[in-house]
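User: Here's a chain of 173 residues. Predict its fold as tokens.
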Amino acid sequence: MSEIPQGGRAEARERALVSAPELSWALREVNRLSSELDVELARRLHLRLMDNMALGHVMASDTELGPAELSARLGISTGSGTELVDRLERAGHLERHRDTHDRRRVSLRASSSAMQSVIGELAPLLASLDSLAGDFSPAEQEVIARYLRAAAERIRHFIGDSGAPGSPGSKCE
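Assistant: Prediction complete.
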């Protein structure tokens, strides 16, 4: 019986199909776990997974999102997106803000209580990761950070400039 890699059976199946440096496998495991983290965070916040994903998009976006842009990022119809936004607004997680120049334009913002809840749930994990970083010298941390930032840029490039699922992506070099 062959040994199962640290990344589990999913990684073992992937390793049978492609060869990659150990660093790439470690990052792939982190990416896989981040999906599981989203599910766990939704459970802890008592949110549907799609609602948690929506809240995450609003909180992480570099630009203000309206309901239509959020729907596109989630890959759902604008009608479903409006229903989702209504639900999150009623629950106090999202706020709608009208554009002062174009009253038809609405942007979405996470409420301060929603942001506090998310950060509160993630605080123990973030503290643990900060502690882990302390296990590495400043020079090692710099190299790790450089790798992770470059990997993030490659992922951003792969999914497309808008960051939206379904947007035209291109192959990483």
